[in-house]
């Protein structure tokens, strides 16, 4: 498939030009220092998610970020509503964006979903974080996508 017809290529080019005009070389270089620096930086999650789409695993980052937002919810009523959405989107078997977690973590969430606490997704979030850090993050750093972005910014700084 030629780069002109490859829809992934088009997404990458559009995403890259939109973000590379805003992201700094310093930020991009920090991403290679640790996974934590990548996902807590300003543009890292957007770039990383674009990469994860190529691996069909962007649900991992979506879930992790959703859990970060979930922990900040103070209203019990809203927490129940969001917890159910997280459950139906990511946790239950055959969920549209089902994440890969072990059975004990899934069962604990099922037990706690009726009265969800601020921490009821912590174990699943930890597992997903480890999956990303160990598996897709090293591939991201080696990817043409990351290398090209880094190179284009290094070239612009010269």
Automatic annotation (TrEMBL):
<dbReference type="Pfam" id="PF00615">
    <property type="entry name" value="RGS"/>
</dbReference>
<feature type="domain" description="RGS">
    <location>
        <begin position="34"/>
        <end position="150"/>
    </location>
</feature>
<dbReference type="InterPro" id="IPR044926">
    <property type="entry name" value="RGS_subdomain_2"/>
</dbReference>
<dbReference type="InterPro" id="IPR036305">
    <property type="entry name" value="RGS_sf"/>
</dbReference>
<protein>
    <submittedName>
        <fullName>RGS13 protein</fullName>
    </submittedName>
</protein>
<dbReference type="InterPro" id="IPR016137">
    <property type="entry name" value="RGS"/>
</dbReference>
